[in-house]
Here is the input.
Amino acid sequence: MTSSAAEKKHLRRLGHNLKPIVTIASKGLTENVGAEIDRALNDHELIKIKLSVGDRAAKKLLCDEICTSYSAQLVQSIGHILLIYKKSKKPNPKLSNLLRQ
Here is the structure.
């Protein structure tokens, strides 16, 4: 996991032009949504998730649940968008958002 400010700044810079891959709506973190998040993190390493849920507290709980469930790190949270990162064991240069940049 990254922890330094410079590494997070670099990840935010890379994530700026990304579009949200997954949208989580009122049903919350279902099994299918979780499978898509897991697949996206393994393929792309750095992804955006759009949260269409209630208030700030609900977003914070959902964000914490995602990060702990998938061993991911929250890089940035602005409004309804989360930018999360998880290092892949064998990143694919054609899919990884870190290696393609």
Summary: DSSP finds three helices and four strands in the chain. Helices lie at 5-15, 31-44, 56-69.
